[in-house]
Write a structure and sequence with these properties.
The protein is of the alpha/beta class. Helix content is 30%, strand content 26%. The protein has one domain: Rossmann fold (3-Layer(aba) Sandwich), CATH 3.40.50. The chain contains seven helices and eleven strands. α1 crosses α3 and α2 runs parallel beside α3.
Length: 239
């Protein structure tokens, strides 16, 4: 594993990323400095749907009421596209907010061709690509929903209090991106969760679980996607 830490770049200098096929026929990208892929080799779309959409209960939440979602690490935009496409199909109201310091280059994102998957709305994916390319801060969604993108460092943002129903924590692993998994980083994220909100992530690393528990969340390990990680994590704010 490459232990080189990324230098601070502006969002006007996106990283050139290599395309990596995955086992379910979808592709992901390899980050040249973190030296990790954005998604599992066992299936990019499969992992995103299982870990983030399914374990967060996004579909049921959208059916019940407007749903606010924060993503730590927009990455390739796959979780964003899947979640917003689900909101379109369900005719629900989604308020998505995402953070990304190191956006991939648009040519690499286009090569992923996520619009060919039935779970992703093709027109929406084109709008997302346009937002990546021009670093747009906002896109509208039906039913007064919206997509807000913060193309900046996590530390610069004020997430507020009790704003989100769902957190997708999809930063690179604690081994190479430890600053987004510390108590200092997790505290404002949890403060921004509403009572009853859930945080879902792919890692079940012991230190991460213990930090979430120390901050008052109920933590559970759930089955990972077929063929992929054995377990993933969901943490619930009960108070």
């Amino acid at each position: 594993m490459n232990d080189k830490r990324p230098e601070i770049h502006t969002v006007d200098a996106p990283f050139v990323s290599d395309l990596v096929p995955t086992a379910d026929g979808s592709a992901t990208l390899h980050h040249p400095i973190y030296d990790q892929t954005y998604h599992s080799h066992h299936g990019a779309v499969t992992e995103s749907k299982h870990v983030f959409l399914d374990h967060s209960g996004l579909q049921a939440r959208l059916a019940a009421s407007p749903t606010s979602l924060l993503e730590i690490g927009i990455g390739t935009g796959l979780n964003l596209a899947l979640s917003a496409s689900l909101a379109l199909r369900e005719e629900g109201t989604l308020h998505y907010e995402g953070i990304e310091q190191f956006p991939p280059d648009t040519e690499a994102l286009r090569a992923l061709d996520y619009a060919r998957f039935p779970e992703i709305d093709a027109e929406l994916w084109e709008r997302c690509l346009h937002a990546f390319e021009h670093r747009l801060p906002a896109l509208s969604l039906p039913n007064n929903g919206h997509i807000l993108c913060h193309w900046t460092r996590f530390e610069t943002l004020d997430l507020g209090e009790e704003r989100f129903d769902i957190i997708y924590h999809d930063a690179f692993s604690p081994d190479v991106n430890p600053e987004l998994w510390t108590i200092e980083a997790l505290t404002p994220i949890i403060r921004a969760m509403k009572p009853g909100a859930v945080l879902v992530t792919y890692t079940v690393q012991g230190d991460v679980r213990r930090r979430l528990q120390s901050l008052g969340l109920e933590v559970e390990r759930l089955p990972g996607p077929v063929g992929g990680k054995r377990q993933v994590l969901r943490a619930t704010r009960t108070l």
